Amino acid sequence: MFDESYVKESAESAHIYINEEKLGEYTERLNERMKRIEKVLDIEPKTNKTTINPSDRSTVLREDVKETGLTHEEAMKNAPDEYEGAFRVPKII
Amino acid sequence: MSETIKSVKEYISKEGAKQAFKRAENVIKTKPECENAIITYSNPDFSKVTNESGKLYGIPIVISDNISTKDIETTCASNILKGYIPPYKGDAEQKLEAEGAVILGKGNINEFLIPNAPSFIGDVKNPYDDKYTAGPAGGCAVSVLAGSVPVSVASDAYGAVRLSASYTGITGFRPTYGAISRYGLIYNSGSTDQVSILANKVSDCATVANVLGGHDKRDTMSLLDPLDFEKGVSKARKKIYDSDLLEGIKIGIPENFIEGADFEIVKNFEKAIKIFESLGAVCETCWFEAAEFSNEIHEIITAGEASAMLAKYDGTRFGQRIDSDNWHEMVAKTRTLFGKSVQDEIIFGTNLLRSKQIQKYYMKALKLRTDLVEEINSLFKTYDFLISPTTIKIPAVSKDLENWFLTDKSITSINLAGLPAISVPFKKYNGIPTGIQIAGNLKKDSDVLKTAYIFEKKSKGEN
Could you tell me which of B21, B278, B321, B395 has the fewest CB atoms within 10 Å of its CB? Predict the structure, then answer.
């Protein structure tokens, strides 16, 4: 069972703001889910081999060939804001 | 063998693509059961719909809101992506339009398809009983059911396509992982998600799968050799292609796929088994040991992947922003634009990937996944197909969706192993349609489709 401080830490790692008043609810829900998966703790895998995805592809590299992408106009078309041909984004810091 | 598409095409040739589109739009805008089915309507330029010889000329199609469509808002049914208008076409849109199809709009889904996460515009009610949802890809399913479009394209993370098809009495086909490009798909569980198809008929699924299939270098998981969904006959099963029988076909019924199913669902399934047997197939029960923990490993892996894939929605790289005094606070507040269930999924997944937990849960789940894949491979040495009810329970009650979770081993096992599977409508339970799932081995998609086609024909009138 996780306590509220552990859940707060996880939420901070996940960059999700949790209102202190709601921390108890989040903790309860997380503990319920942990209970649902606890069955795996009792099973020993037969192998040490991991399966990251079900693909049988042995390489994911394509040939390094120059291709035409979006034109500048296409790339900018749906941008909420632009300045001198570049994306204008809100100030970050 | 495409049936509905053929009849719609005949209608279009008389009326024209624009009229057909208006009719489709009118259906979805006026039928009460289609409320919330579409998040964004497209505004197609019919002067560009010119490929009259295309396989899908003039056919209106709905695409789920987690697949990118050029100049049509694509939100994944989430507030965080509100206002995002892709400047490019995803592979699905490209291929559909190249064959003359017209995108009607973006089908409503659960937020990022997460099973218990309601769409930010509200969920799609089940047309058979509006107390229940129409499933995680409900907007796409209901558009087909209402007769607005003959086909929808959506993705099958968490079994969204097959579940929604089952709940609404239509057909949902998930191809082999990598058989259809995921370029443009905004996925959050990359190792289980796959672009899939919802349609009235099995044959329509096959036709559209052939349009969408093929290698795409823009998707690193794309199969190198294209599959032929309509004609690819494997020699061992040639008989089923020469006749409408299943003689010589051996079907496995994993007992643990049915565990916990409601009595009526089991009763319906037993009737389906009788149909398979009457077609000449040999059906026998089997035990799929690894499926005993498939729900748990699916939950661990998908949550771990979701927490990583959804990290980019931080107000800086992707998505909307809630301004604040400093960067950390801005990111944390921006991410509250995710719905409650998605936030839970991210926190749960982040917790599983933390150094204190990762070996205990996530890495172990990846090893158990190997066991599952190996066991399912050995099952397919004995059986041609595995069948089961698509789902063992009725859909989520709309107002209680946030407490719903996936409990179908038949769904989670197939997604973890990346196998082709189809849900074919068969009977009802408490007034809600139910489906039969037919799953095959990797790349045996055409065998799955042909078998489903034979079953669909024989079971006509049983729904």
Answer: B278
ipTM: 0.92
For residue B265, count CB atoms less than 10 angstroms from its CB and return exposed for 0-12, middle for 13-18, buried for 19 or more. buried
Residue reference for tokens 């942990």: A34
Report field, pTM of the whole predicted structure over 0.90:
yes
Answer whether residue A81 is part of any domain: no
Of A41, A52, A77, the CB nearest to B191: A52
Q: What would you measure as the largest C-alpha separation in chain A, in angstroms?
A: 60
Distance of CA B248 to the CA centre of its chain: 30
Instruction: Provide, as residue numbers in chain A, all residues whose Cβ is less than 8 Å from the Cβ of B321.
Output: 90
For B410-446, the pLDDT digits (tens) are 999 999 999 999 999 999 999 999 999 999 999 999 9
Q: Which domains does chain B have, with CATH numbers?
A: 1-288+380-463 (3.90.1300.10), 296-360 (no CATH)
Count of domains forming chain A = 1
Following DSSP, what letter does each residue of B269-301 receive, concatenated? Answer: HHHHHHHHHHTT-EEEEE--GGGGGHHHHHHHH
pLDDT, one tens digit per residue, over A68-80 is 889 999 999 999 8
Q: Does A72 touch chain B (CB under 8 A)?
A: no
Contact B31, B124 (CB under 8 A): no
Tell me the pLDDT band of B233, cut-offs 50, 70 and 90: very low
According to DSSP H, which parts of B284-357 are helical?
A: 294-309, 327-334, 340-353
Smallest CA–CA distance, residue B135 to chain A, in Å, is: 21
Give the per-residue pLDDT at A18. 93
DSSP reduced 3-state for B132: strand
pLDDT band at residue B239 under the 50/70/90 scheme: low
Task: Report, as an integer, the average pLDDT of B126-130.
Answer: 97
Domain boundaries, position A32 = 4-42
- B248 Cβ contact list (under 8 Å, min separation 6): B237, B239, B280
Q: Is residue A49 part of a domain?
A: no
For residues B408 and B311, give the distance between their C-alpha atoms in angstroms, rounded to a whole number.
Answer: 28
Chain B positions in Cβ-Cβ contact with residue A7 (cut-off 8 Å)? 347, 351
* Cα–Cα–Cα angle for B297, B390, B239, rounded to 5 degrees: 110
Hey, is the C-beta of A11 within 8 angstroms of any chain B C-beta? yes
Which two three-digit tokens encode residue B405?
């979770």
- Considering only CB atoms, A54 lies closest to which of B333, B364, B417, namely B417
Residue B87: both structure tokens together? 């400047």
pLDDT digits 0-9 by tens, B315-351: 988 999 999 989 999 999 999 999 999 999 999 999 9
Report residue B307 as tokens. Answer: 């927490």
Residue contact A90–B191, C-beta within 8 A:
no
Return the structure tokens found at B125: 């009610």
Question: Which sign does the torsion angle of CA B270, B271, B276, B277 carry?
Answer: positive
